[in-house]
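User: I'm putting together a teaching handout on how sequence relates to shape, and I'd like one worked example. Could you take Sulfotransferase from Glacieibacterium frigidum, show the sequence you're using, and then write out its predicted structure as tokens right after it?

Assistant: Happy to. First the sequence, then the structure tokens directly below it.
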Amino acid sequence: MFDTAIALRPSPQPATPGNSNRRVAALNGLLARSWASGLLSTPSLDPAELVATAVRQTGLDDLGRDHWRPALEQLCRSLETEADLNPFGRTVAHGQIVGALKTRLRAHALWQRHPEILETPLSAPIVVLGQMRSGTTRLQRLLACDPRLDHTRFFESSHPLPQRGRKLRAAVALQAMAALNRDFAAIHPTGAGLPDEEIGLFAPGLISSQFEVQWRVPGYARWCEAADTRAAYAEFRALLQTLRWLRGRRDDRPWVLKVPQFTQDLPALLASFPDARLLCVERDRAAVVGSAASLVHNQMQLQSDAADPHWIGREWLGKVVHREGVVARTLAQRPCVPRHTVDYARMDDDWLAEMQRVYDFLGLPLTAPVAAAMTAYIERSAQGRRPHRYAIADFGLCPDTIADRRAA
């Protein structure tokens, strides 16, 4: 009940169509004038040109298997016909896609030079399985307090390959985004060296929900929901092996994995990690949809001057329901997959008791030093953090609409 009450509470600054960010508006004007004058070229979103740019900038040409090409073509088609990007959004889209392709080229070159990377052990990962905004970050960061477990840091997700200053690059990127988007820290506080999800590791395969969060690309979203993503998850595993190899670790400690996209791709995830143990995070659907829509609107309005909160509400309600269906069907078909339910409300009420249940499921003792580290994390995260306020009505939704929606 508490969860839903927050989602129903009027927000101090209701989500509205358009973009009121003055800094982004000024940047859009500067970019538009530069393109019109010929000072800068308009960034291309043509798939062939994006690939050619990545090849030219890296001097490499082996992109591996071609499963990513249809995804790239669909993403670019959606960006051109659906996303209604402003100049800043077009620049970001071009840069992100070229960057993803460059990572792809460099990864395959690295694996050719060091085939032993793909033999790196990666056994029995602990998968935090939950919708975006369901409390998965809190659970992941609590588990990251345990030195017996591995986790991914933000800079590793955004820059997974050997590169001088990659942590600094990630920090600079976060600072730049914070300057343009001051509200994001209240929604998802992070830092270059902090535990974070592995969403960046899906970008090189061009099948990544990070694109759907930033841009209105429903054609691409439906394509991804219907796609066979097993090849993308095989490469995701290879990139995790690369991170472990770069760390110089020889032990095979359990890795805590957390990406909300897992709920959409659970069969493919289990194909690459058949020994995974699932921590299934559950939260009131109204709160999940409202919080997700708020985050997406926060991101989308930076890159489009026509971000529509009501469309976002409908889209992400549908996405949440679709992902619920995938998880329910997959787990019903695979009763032997180890899983444990973690309840958001119980975590709010007594996080330590909930974590004790998690550790009992994992067969690990929750030691006093680990519990103390977790307590310190909880206390730090509460200090100075602004609450994330949103109202489902801002997104054209009401409790009955959300509760009654069923998967198609």
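A couple of points you could highlight for students: The chain is about 55% helix and 5% strand. Strands lie at 126-129, 256-258, 277-282, 339-343.
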